[in-house]
Fold each of these.
Amino acid sequence: MTTLIPVLGDQLSHNLASLREADPRSSIVLMMEVGEETTYVRHHPHKIILIFSAMRHFAEELRERGFAVDYIQLDDPENGGSFTAEVGRAVRRHEAEGIRVVEGAEWRVQKALEGWSERFGVPVEILPDDRFICPLPDFFTWAARADKPVMEFFYRDQRRRTGLLMEADGKPAGGQWNFDKDNRSGPPHEGDLPSRCPVEPDAVTREVISLVAKRFPNHFGRVEGFGLPVTAVGAAAAFDEFVATRLPLFGTYQDAMVVGEDLLFHAAMSTSMNCGLLDPLDACRKVEAAWRAGKAPLNAAEGFIRQIIGWREYMRGMYWLEMPGLGAANALAATRPLPDFYWTGETDMRCLAESIRNTRDNAYAHHIQRLMVLGNFALLAGVLPQAISDWFLVVYADAYEWVEHPNVIGMSQWADGGRIATKPYAASGAYIDRMSDYCRNCVYDVRKKVGPRACPFNALYWDFLARHESKLAGNHRLRNQYATWSRMGTEKQEAYREWAKRFLDGLNPAEPGWARSATTE
Ligand code: FAD
Ligand code: DLZ
Ligand code: SF4
């Protein structure tokens, strides 16, 4: 009996549940480059290069382990263009009597998998994705018990579950669960900035780069500058470099932003983790070991581990808890089309221009650029959550709906009405000025509230709070802000609102087609 084992582009892990106990003599592994995955949104070329190159390397590694791998390339003339079409062809080609597959990480893919048994008339075993640390049923049980599923409490359970940064008496290392208050320094001095070695593309990656340049010439971004790891060995080396050189200051400068410095002390490992090349728990154990060996301070190790076993796992749980409603959520009834500068990068607002520049060049921006610049602006301007969500899904090499939707629609746009974030991540120019050197290099004046050359974030911030007063004034975390707003007096309030309106009226909407094209490429 032949079992077909489809391995999807974000399942490139040798310990994948479907491969772990598979008998190579009676299994065929199916890997497929398909048009639908490349253009359901028009991904940044770096993401397509990453996935195709990593898939091709992984297929070779499986062959070396003795597996028969049926690998369908994008330009195969028979290519059916979707997972379902290719699985159907493979079932017939190999006369497969069963399919074993790990669950899809995205709602739309999981729904397709669930239809395969009926469609192809063979049994389909769908296995849980146990590369995540918290099984989904456990997450749902935890969320059902909580009054409100708050990340911080989930994170503490995850620390207990994994034993990471725990002492023998069951207390957290250093006597505290969270060292976030030590992690809010503004930009570092120039001499402190680390450098990073990108991975040199090998022959496989170079072939994929040519394919992507030819097939997807009009996607946002560029093929040049691709330097991501495409194998588990490469990802481990890149991660070790992070632990040795950037982890010690990761915590301290986690929220900082600097012109021309795209990475700072961040790991840049979400791309590897999300497609399966780097195991999240292994990464956390390495970080814990660095702290125990005295090579990184506790605020850095805790900060990093919280991002993985806390935020990453929590976002995945919330995605499956809240879908499909989360995709369409719009609690603040925002309707504005995405401004065109998100695609062109042409704006005088230095914070946005910088964040979009490095997004276009590297398919990367770090957390605070995503949340407090790119997301914050869309939130304040009242952009339709699904329009900004599509943008985020297109532009980042680490973007998959399971992590993008809860971060963008939930955390950044508050479109889920506060299920994920206890208050909207809305901020005026003062926050960006405190955490970056952008304002020093901007034509706008961050201290000016209204009038020509006033930083647009200032009027937009108060206009946002005023627009949503009925929904947000009761939020205890916004009490001070609303108290300030009411003390301001009508004249000042009107000046803010008038200036915000003038600014918003001057925004150009993006041309349609950047994120989703009408035709398949
Ligand atoms: P580091 O700052 O070095 O953090 C270490 C790791 O922690 C990351 O590699 C990532 O795996 C994990 N992590 C940290 N924060 C989060 C989070 N909020 N959710 C999930 N994992 C987290 N991350 C994605 O992987 N894909 C996305 O599509 C994505 N979209 C985002 C959109 C918005 C609006 C925001 C605010 C955040 C988004 N994130 C997303 C989370 C975070 O910004 C990225 O994981 C991080 O910037 C990746 O870079 P890094 O590896 O250098 O991260
Ligand atoms: C992101 C992506 C792209 C661009 N292309 C492919 C592909 O051709 N074949 C494939 O197996 N996977 C691809 N992926 C990753 C999938 O989109 C991802 O596996 C699903 O969205 C499930 O999360
Ligand atoms: Fe951004 Fe305003 Fe600062 Fe300019 S002044 S960089 S627009 S926050």
Amino acid sequence: MSEKKRMITGDRPTGRLHIGHYFGSLQNRVKMQDDYDCYILVADVQALTDNFENPEKVRKNVREVVMDYLSVGIDPKKTTIYIQSMIPEVAELTVFYSNLVTIARLERNPTVKTEIAQKKEIFGESVTYGFLGYPVSQAADITALEGSIVPVGEDQLPLIEQTREIVRKFNSIYGEILIEPEAVLSNTKRIKGLDGNEKMGKSLGNAIYLSDSEEEITKKVMSAVTDPGRIKKDDPGNPNICMVSYYHNLFSTKEEVEAVCNECKAGTRGCVACKKQLAKNIIDYLAPIREKRKYYEERPELVDKILEEGTKKARQTAKETMKKVKKVMKLDYFE
Ligand code: TRP
């Protein structure tokens, strides 16, 4: 048995991953690989809770997200990557857990509350049973795999809290068999969008994707928001309110940052030159990721194999958990 603590986390496959994901969570996951027994799930069932009319979209993005994982250095030898819907024990466990949580408690979950408010166009006035219950299914994701550490962004903390409550309730009623997981914040760095929006996101159209081509990166950087007070090229600029300077800080050397900021403030460097330099640095920075991604794009059967093996391994653990759960719940018939 491995002595390492088990870490589990995941993403909804609703789109390709961008540099916000990279700095916010992926880099952290790569680092954790040597110290933890790592599992990452592609949460296709959860993605369907608010994309149930778009099964194609979810299906397509499963492979995109996995290629993003692999391209940043998540190593399938160290991290088990698997598909949520392929673990039927998780769905089964969700049903059992649904007795241990009230509707009022789910409605109070701040993350769920915010999401419901944002998704009025999908749910109208009354949210689906499936969406309201996704925290229950997430509790099943984590506990079926006996995860003890869950690295997540801040918005996910109420979900982990809800998992912990379900675990405590289960253990107090049926017996102490489930592991109460702990959240660890992975979002030390939240990356703003190219337009200055606090959040980078697909729907906002302000993101640079890990899979973007050199041309796409250049085009996006050229449209980034700069100091609005700087009209003419030789007007002195304020890098503190410029997204290009913000990104230089992430992708350029300290010396470069200093030089571009000083020249901007002095009005001796135009925004176009500054953006071109940034675009080049981002392109160079992401080059190894793009290359690795290309390797997997050309080998879809390899990606499938990684997923299939990961899913098989994850399922084994989920089956063992289910056996214990059924035993304490007196559902172990014919054994
Ligand atoms: N809710 C997570 C998100 O939207 C995805 C997710 C599903 C997850 N199951 C999980 C995260 C289990 C951590 C653990 O990003």
